[in-house]
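ok, trying the design again with the full structure, not the truncated one.
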């Protein structure tokens, strides 16, 4: 097996390091946060991710995984150096790759001859070549290996992926990186670096487009009297389309979709192409936030000002604790601007510190719904579907529910006496 350095112990880096150790490689993962490094070496995982704590603790026990402070400590004896660094959206829409540049400058003189730098960060086309230029080493290869990890199931996505994409100009380097994934049953797609870098952006942009399409389609269903669940069942059965990502909701968000969409639009602009389709998708997502608020206004007879609104769910999707670019937060901000009082409950959020000002946090559903004028379901946590809504109804000021995730049984809610609205269902 191989010696691997992973630079960055965030969501992607931590999953990558842990899973590579699980595959039998000897992995050193570096981060600049000393507290995080200490916690990880003690088996404490700072993010909510299924199976990750168990695999991390196993790697520590087997001594195939360790964490250090700073990239220099990690790369000295490594055959592979994975870059798993943040590439946030800059003010101009471009991805900021300064963290990558800083790490390359830090390690370029000490990285062993014959080693391979593997860029797993989401970066613009041309970054692979830029890294090669920055490192100024003919004896070090650079390979692009984009990640396709979904929060909540990242370990499964790493170990059972739909595909593994390798972007390289050196066939030998591509083969060596491919060998790291021995034991994983998945097709290997070997392409040039520019194509690998584009695949990542194209994947997220297409998925976001699919979500925006079904959200708009739900609005059409409401207008014409069709049922979105029936429509998507027929639509998704077409093998050219598929059934995944055809569930309407309050909009898309998270740490990847928004910045990757903007980055692809900017890359296209820089190359001389106006990607108006993606601009329309981004605009449609903004409109979806407004549409959810409009439906809440209709359900409360335009009396949001002064109303107590319960927000059920704050994370951008279920089975994660991630609030970054959450549609729930976007909707909450719009409701707050209407003068509403907001009480929120999310099973993975236990502190108001990470929330915008004006959102009060409840400890459970019962507390959140007491004296509420309307409940708005914004994240598809299973707990909300299992709840005893008959008992919850009696504690509310008014039995109103706006289900922006179509999580509940419409007919059951109406039978319980709720004023109930959802997306595209009749």
């Amino acid at each position: 097996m191989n010696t691997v350095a992973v630079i960055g112990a965030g969501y992607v880096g931590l999953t990558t390091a842990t899973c590579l150790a699980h595959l039998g490689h000897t992995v050193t993962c570096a981060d600049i946060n000393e507290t995080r490094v200490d916690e990880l070496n003690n088996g404490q995982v700072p993010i909510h991710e299924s199976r990750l704590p168990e695999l991390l603790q196993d790697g520590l026990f087997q001594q195939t995984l360790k964490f250090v402070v700073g990239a220099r400590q990690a790369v000295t004896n490594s055959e592979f150096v994975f870059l798993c660094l943040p590439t946030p959206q800059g003010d101009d829409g471009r991805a900021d790759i300064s963290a990558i540049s800083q790490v390359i400058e830090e390690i370029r003189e000490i990285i062993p001859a014959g080693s391979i730098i593997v860029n797993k960060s989401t970066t613009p086309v041309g970054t692979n070549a830029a890294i090669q230029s920055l490192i100024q080493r003919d004896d070090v290869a650079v390979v692009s290996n984009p990640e396709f990890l979904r929060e909540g199931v990242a370990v499964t996505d790493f170990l059972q992926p739909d595909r593994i994409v390798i972007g390289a100009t050196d066939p030998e380097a591509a083969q060596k990186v491919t060998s790291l994934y021995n034991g994983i049953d998945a097709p290997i797609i070997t392409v040039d670096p520019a194509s690998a870098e584009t695949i990542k952006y194209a994947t997220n942009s297409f998925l976001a487009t699919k979500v925006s399409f079904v959200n708009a389609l739900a609005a059409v269903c409401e207008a014409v009297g069709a049922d979105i669940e029936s429509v998507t069942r027929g639509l998704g059965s077409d093998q050219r389309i598929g059934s995944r990502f055809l569930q309407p909701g309050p909009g898309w968000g998270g740490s990847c979709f928004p910045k990757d969409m903007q980055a692809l639009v900017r890359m296209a602009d820089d190359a001389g192409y106006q990607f108006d389709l993606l601009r329309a998708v981004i605009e449609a997502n903004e409109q979806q936030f407004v549409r959810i608020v409009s439906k809440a206004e209709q359900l409360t007879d335009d009396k949001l000002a002064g109303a107590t609104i319960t927000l059920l769910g704050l994370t951008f999707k279920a089975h994660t604790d991630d609030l970054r670019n959450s549609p729930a937060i976007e909707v909450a901000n719009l409701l707050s601007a209407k003068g509403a009082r907001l009480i929120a409950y999310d099973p993975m959020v236990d502190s108001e510190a990470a929330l915008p000002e004006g959102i009060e946090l409840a400890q459970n559903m019962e507390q959140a719904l007491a004296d509420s004028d309307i409940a708005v379901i914004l994240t598809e946590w299973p707990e909300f579907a299992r709840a005893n809504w008959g008992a919850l109804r009696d504690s509310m000021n008014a039995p109103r529910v706006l289900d922006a995730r179509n999580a509940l049984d419409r007919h059951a809610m109406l039978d319980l006496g709720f004023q109930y609205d959802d997306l595209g269902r009749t």
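Keeping the full-length input from now on. The chain has a mean pLDDT of 96.
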